[in-house]
Structures are given as C-alpha cells and as structure tokens.
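notes to self, project folder thing:

trying the whole complex as one job this time. last attempt i did each chain seperately and stitching them together was a nightmare. two parts in total, labels are on each line so i dont mix them up again. if this works i'll redo the older ones the same way
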Amino acid sequence: MANTITLEQQIGKGEFNEVYRSGELAVKLFNKGYSKADVMNEAYIQARIEEVGGINIPKLHSIPLMNDRYGIVMDYIPGKNMAELIYENPKDTEKYIDKLVDIQMEIHTKRCPYLIKMRDKLADRINRSDLDEDKKFELLTMLDGSPKHNKVTHGDFTPHNIMVGEDGKIYILDWNHASQGNASADVARTYLWLCLHHKEIAELYLDMFCQKSRTDKRYVQRWMPVVAGARLIKKKDGEEELLRKWVDVVLYE
Amino acid sequence: MATKKKVVSPEKVETVEQLEIRLEELRAAQKEFATFTQEQVDKIFYAAATAANQNRIPLAKMAVEETGMGIVEDKVIKNHFASEYIYNAYKDTKTCGVIEEDKAYGIKKIAEPMGVVAAIIPTTNPTSTAIFKALIALKTRNALMISPHPRAKDCTIAAAKIVRDAAEKAGAPKGLISWIDTPSLEMTQTLMSDADIILATGGPGMVTAAYSSGKPALGVGPGNTPVIIDETADIKLAVNSIIHSKTFDNGMICASEQSVTVLDSIYDEVKKEFAYRGCYFLKKDELDKVRKTIIINGSVNAKIVGQKAHTIAKIAGVDVPESTKILIGEVTSVDVTEEFAHEKLSPVLAMYRAKTFDEAIEKAERLVADGGYGHTSSLYIDTREKEKMEKHAAAMKTCRILVNTPSSQGGIGDLYNFKLQPALTLGCGSWGGNSVAGNVGVMNLINIKTVAERRENMLWFRAPEKVYFKKGCMPVALQELKDVYHKKRCFVVTDSFLYKNNFIKPITDKLNEMGITYEVFANVQPDPTLDNALEGVAAMNRFEPDCIIAYGGGSAMDCGKIMWVLYEHPDESFENMAMRFMDIRKRIHEFPHMGDKATFIAIPTSSGTGSECTSFAVITDKGVKYPLADYELLPDIAIVDVDNMMTQPKGLTSASGIDVLVHCLEAYVSMMATDYTDGLALKGMKNVFEYLPTAYNEGSNVEARQKMADASCMAGMAFNNAFLGVCHSMAHKLGAFHHIPHGVANALVLSYVMRFNADEQPAKMGTFPQYEYPHTLRRYCEAAEFCGVKGKNDAETFKLFVEKIEDLKKTVGIPESIAAWGIDEKAFLETLDEMSENAFDDQCTSANPRYPLISEIKEMYLMAYYGKDYKPAK
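result (full assembly):
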C-alpha cells in the first residue's frame, strides 16, 4: 500500500503533523519521533467511529510508516470547512450554526462502548494541570458529582472540523479527542473554544443548542469550569486568562 | 506500602492506605464507645462542648485567616452556637439504650449508634460545622472521620482536635475522632464508601458524590432564599433584620437572603431605610459591572465569596464607601439569566418590586425553583395577615419558612425560634435531592430498634342495654316505654302475615293503653330489599317516631334496623357501611352514631337469628346482599317472650333451631371467643340438643319453645361478640346462589366445616393475637363434653359429637346432602368456583380459627353436595 502513496501537495499543517493530498487520498503524516501509541490510538478511534455507522467521516485506509514517519491514510474530501464558509458568508451564520448543532446532536445519539470515558480523560487532564490542589479538588468533585452518560462526543467539535464536501455531503474530521460521556460537556467544550476563538458566535451557538436539544443552559454551564480546567494543560498562548477565570468559581454550598 | 506492612497507626492520614488503617482504628474505638452508658456519654458531650466553646475565638481567627473569607466576629458566633446551642438542645436527650418504653403496650425503643460517621466539611463554615458534627456524633456514640476541604483543612482539623482531646480526657475511647490530613477526592470517596453514614455539607458535586457512594447520606444543598416584604410589615424591623442576616459572615450562610421582593406601596420607604442603614443601591451602569463580576457562566465567582461589599465593588470597578454593608441591585427578571437572581454567597442582594402579594409569591416561587429548592424562604408581614401567610407557606417549596426573622441566624434554629432545632446542616427534602427535610440532629445518627412484645387485643362484651325474657314478659317490658323512657310516638315494623293474623294486637293494645301514638308498617318482605326498607322509611319520616319496635323473625328485625339507619342518617351509603373489615374496631368507614332520633326495640317471633341482640343486619339491593355490621346497630332493648313464638311452623323451627346450634358452635371455636361468650355459647347449644327435638315434634310445648328462644338469644349475644366462622360464610353463599333457607344451608355444610377446623395441622391458621396455636379440636371436645358426649380420647369425642349433630339434623328433618335437598348437580357445579371465592371473602371468614384456602372451601362444598357419595378428585 505504502508504495502507491505519493505526497503530492501539502493541504494542512498541525502541531505534530502535516497533511498531504495523494490522489483520492489524504495522508496525515506525523513528525518523526511522535508517539507511536498516539498515532495508533488516533487511527483506532477513527476506525471505531467509522464502524459506529451513521456518522459521515473520511474512510480510513492504512497506517503506513514512511521514512520513519507514521501516516494515517484516508479519503481526501474536496470542499471547504464550516469556519471558512461562515467567514465567506457572514449573513448565513445562523444557518451554519443551526447545521452545526444538528450534526453535534446527531453524534450524541450514537454509542460506542470501546471509546475512552470522557470523565477519565477530563480527570486525568485536571490532575496534570498546574492548578493548585484546592482547585483540583473542587473541579474533580464537580466532575465526580456529574451525571454519568455514555454518548459519543467528538471532543473537538468546532466549525473547522466540519467539512462541506464538493458533493454537498458533510464530513466530520479529526476524531482524536472523541470519547463517551456527557453531551453537555461536549457542548461546553465547543462553547469554550468559540469563546476563545470566535466570541461573536459563541452565545448564538450555546443558545441554539440549548433550545434545540431542550437542555437547561445551567446544565451546560456546570461543565464549564471542568472543561476549562482540563484545557489548561494545552498551555496555548492567549487562553490562560479566560480559562483561569472560568475555573475560579464555586458552584454553591 | 511500608505502613501497610507494619500496620502501625499512621501519624497522619495522607494516603488511602493510611486512611484504611485509621478507619479500622475508628471502628475499634467506636465498638468500645457503643457500650458506654448515657451518663458516660453525657459527660463526654459536656466536656467536648465546653472545650469547643472555650476555643471559639482562636478557631474563628484561624478559619478567616486560612480561607480568606468571612468575618472573625461572626465566625465566633457560629462556633459559639455550634457548641453551646447544640449542647443545650441535646443535653437531656436520651441517645443510648432504651429511649422510650410503654409497658402496657409492650413496646420499647432502643437507640444504637450507626458506627463511623463520615463528615464532609465545607469552606464556608469549617470550624463550626466540624464542631457541630463532632458533638452530635459523640452524643450518639458514633466515631467521626472528617474530610476537610483542602482550603480549610488546618482550621477544620484544629477544631476536630480540640473536641477529640476534650472527649478523650472525659473518658472517650482513644481515636474516636479523626481526620484526613491531606484531602483528595480519592480519599473522600474511600471514606464515603467505607463509612456507615455520611454527613455531607458542601457543593452539589460533593452531595451527589455522597449519595452515589452507596452509603446512607444526609446531604444538604444550596439555598436561594427569597424574601418578601409585605405592605403590612414593620419596615424598620424587616430591613434591619435583612441587613443583619445578609452581612453575617459576609453572606456565607446558605440560608442567607439572596433577593428581596417589596410591595409597590412601600418600595420607596424600604429603599430609603436600606440606604439610610448603609446599603448601596447600584446605579444603572454599575449594575452590569457587578453582574459580570459576581457570576461566571452561571456560577459564583470564587473571588467574591465571603468578601465585604466594598471589596466586591472594587473588583467590579465600582466605587462605594468602605463601610457599605450590602450591594443592592434593583432588577426585574427572576430568570436565571439575571445574575442577581442567583445565590451569591456574599453581601450582594437583588431587589424586586411587586404590584401585588400574589406577584411577589410568584417571583419567590421562581427563585426557589431555580436555585434553592427545599432550602429556606422568608416573609416579613403583620402576623395577623393569616390568609397571606397561609398562601405563602403553601407556595414555598422550602423546608424552612421564616417569618419576620433574619434567615441566616433564623434558619440554623433556636436563635429566633426556640422550637426550630439548632443545626449547621440544613436538610432540603426531596426537593433538594436530600434524604432529610428538617434541620439535622442527633436523631439522624442513631438506629432505633423497636422491641415489640406480643399483646392481646382489647376485647369487650356488647349487648343490648336491656334483654327481657320469660313467658309473658312483653307487656311488662313495654310498660317501660312510658314509665322509664317517656316515649310518645312508636313505629312498629312487622310482616303482613303477623299483621293479618293479628299477632301484633298485644303490642298495639299495650301502646293504646299507655297512650303512645303508633303507626304500623306491615310490609316487610322475606329477605328485605332496600326498596322495601325505603317504603317504611318514608312512612317513618312522616310519622317521626321516638321509638321503633321491630316485631317478627330475622327479616323484620333486620329490615327494622336498616330503616332505623336510614331514618337517622338518610345520606349514609350502603356500600361504605357494608365495607369488609378485618377488625371491627379498625374499620375504614366509621359507622354513624345511632339512637339520636329513636330507641330501637326488637321482639323476635322465631328462635334462630338472635338479631334482637346482635349488631348485624342484611339488606338486598339490586340483587346484591349488603351485610351491615356495627355495634351501633345493636338494639337498645330486646324482648324475648315465648308467647310470641308458639306458632312457628315445623320447617322454621328446625332450620332456625339448627342455625342457633351453628351460632353457638362457631362462636365457641372462633378466634375471638372469650370466657364471657363461652358460657352463653355452651348453654345455648346444650339447650338446642335438649329441646329442639321436642320443639320440633311438639310445637305447643312451652318449655321447649322457651328454652329454644333463650338459646337463640344467648347464641346471638355470644356471636355478637365472638363472631362466626366459615360455616356461615359458606351458608351465606349457598343460600344466595341456590335459595336454600339459611338454617338449612348451615346444617348442610356444618360437619364438613367442623372436621376442617378440627385439623391439628391446618394449611394456615387464623391471625389473631389471642389465637396461640391450632386448638379447635379441643374446643369442639369441650363443647361436646358440656353437652354430655365423651369418648376415650379427643378424636373419639369429636367423632361422637359430629354423630350427635348428624342425629339431631336427621331428627328435625334436615337431609344429609345438598344433592338430597334437591339442588341440580349441573347448576351447583357451575356456581361452585364463584361461591367458593365469595365464601372466602365473606365477613364471617375472618374469625374462623383456620384460615381457609379457596380450594379448601370448594372441597368442602363438594363434600357437602355429594355427602357419602363424594369421591375426592385425584
């Protein structure tokens, strides 16, 4: 298989990888020395989601080793992501957010018992964060007291990861952070990301989700300190102030 | 791991392994503590409370210093309250051993400790909550393991240590109170799943975690206390109480006021008073700044919790005087999108305007629903406004509703109301997802064992006020209607046969002689119907008697009783009065009181039913028989005069005579038989054996007739108090389904029921405290012996007794089987299942000494049907 793959044109770049087009295929090529386990895990999750059915994702083909670099080979989807589309058609923002919420709600109807549990993942990140012990204790207690659900959640559900293909079909990319857990936590995570990067559409998104899914906004808000605490380990520039503000609350006593 | 290998007592609890060792130690100490007497415990409780009280100031200082929240002087009050008020509330409460006993009823309650109490302590009230929980644990002989909040661990541990040391000095086992030195979620979880009970005070996460630990938990939750100031309120008292409460420990008590809704008419005055006393009303542009500061994503900003108003304003970028007591936001929305509508845990208050009291209640309801279900609500009002207060109390889904009371100090109890239990753990009921609805106290930490000794039911003996008997007694007895009872209007109930043959003449003559006006209703039908009775009632209503004479057999007396009920209580429902009961004194429907309008006199003309001295009457309506039973139906006077009984036909003499025998036998073997009823039953059945044949064969024999009349009346008194059994149950249904006279129906099933009851290994015995073991065989033998039957053992005596009964039946012309009586086999078998089930559910079944299975009743019916020819199904 590896022989037939030629890296034609770079079409994307991540923190630890580059994405190339190879004919009908796309190759996500990881940096040399990048964790083999992480590559396999990402491919594993993608394969699992593919097998859940009913979620439109690029088909996974192979995991070749090319010049000491691992790659994940999947279908190439020609089209634009939703962030680009919103940028190009600002008057249709509401329509796109509406679609975004529909897709996210559809994913939440799926079940996949083989994915990692979201609460374990969040607890691990909070524990590894540089928060002081008091704060960790409070966040972990909030997490522990939250309802135990098992819905498939994307984990990085942002307009950038929603591809609108040239064929008109919608594809959901980048399942690396998928887990099974609480839908509201997934929504809180998306809202947080929007607050950090596209503040102008964050409230619209949250209101629309709560309205369409008949979720009490407070239910989503309750997850915000937890998802903010878990994101601290990423140590991304410009995020810290907001994250720490979100974390510094008491639910009530 | 090293500690685990050695199993030495860890100096500190910093790992799960150390916690497990410490919990073992706690259990050992608690085991010893569980043997302590109330005196020992009270001494320890006193010492611990005293020590906590003495350290109230240093502990308050530590708490403020460590958490950076609250006010030292107010925390001193909380510590003082947690020690003194808790001690005072429970110093005389029995918490060890027997705490309640009633020897007459044979009931005793014994208090036992629960074991190891896990105490989750919050940051807002760390030392006082630790003192509170430690004291109630000590008073109840429990051990206590404290899980402090990491941000308040030093002061929490210091408080626990003070209580522990004082308790140990006063004699408590070593190591009864302990704590986690390095709190973590894992440690708290381990503690909660290992403890016997959890006292969780903290955020909702902790409370949920406690409830999901699998151990019983007393968890409490958030409050969002809404205040309403009614226009009748004392405004100065209201405003200053709210300020006093809201500023207490900088608003950190969970019962603290979060919003004030003020009636329109007094709004300005209330606002003026708040401002005058140093509260700051936020200006329009300042409102938003404070909104964004106090709440982040729907939760309280940790930076403002327990801070001064000035500090909070400063964080928000609002300039207020240093001495500002409360920041007040005048807002309109009670929706959760309004930051001021939340619980704020700080001296920040929302203020609403309401046009009417109803609107104010609506607002308060919403605020409670959105943030403080089950916690506390508050009302300022003139307490003469009862209607408004009731409306408010009905609308608030809160476990504490405080009136004219600062809610912080009021909610924790005993400060502003001395019957509200003092506590620093306030239950919010199921509304708040809690297992307790009140203020948590010592009673929540004990297991109560109830020791209940077997007791016998209270029994009584009920009979008519007067029973006249002996030949010729009737006119003498009736004379009393005038002389003793001063009656003026008498209503006579009888049947057309007795009326047409002028049998009632002695009564009407006597009434005429005494000058008592009377009216006769002579249309009682056999098996009287409701319509039949209503016809008589109509006449009765027109006539308005002050006494009723029922003259005749069972039908006339029963119909008279029913008419009496309808005359006195026209609106009573038959279905209710006829409702089946297990115990006549515990029946669901209370029978109405009888006798307010008329005195009831029963004069029998046949010797069988005994209705003249029973509390029973049967009426048929639309084909359904309603057996009514209640002591209210007991006639006031019974007149048993043989002169009325001389003309009974042979068939009636035999059927009703056997009925008397069955009454006696069933009353004698009933579970409810007593020495008081036994004498009557025995003498009654002996009379039947001795005099029924003569009365049957020689109807004019006065002695035989009189002895049977007496037997019938005595039997009535016996079963009126001891009740009947399954023989009557079966006879009732056999009679109803196949139109067999009642006495005959009884006779046809009697011996099969006797054998069934005499079984020494019944499938099920009857349930009644007096009925100790299946002893009916012996009871039948006692009856047999009294009637002169004696075999060489009980089995033989019983056999001979049944034979004697069979002989008697034959003598008085009763056939030996239902088939022989002429009931068609097909018709019988078709109704058999329904009859069996109905007989099972008959009121008489409940007193039977053997509890019958429906299949057993069916079997007896089959035996009674085929008699000697019966072949049991394989």
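what i see at first glance: Chain A is about 45% helix and 20% strand.
need to look closer tmrw
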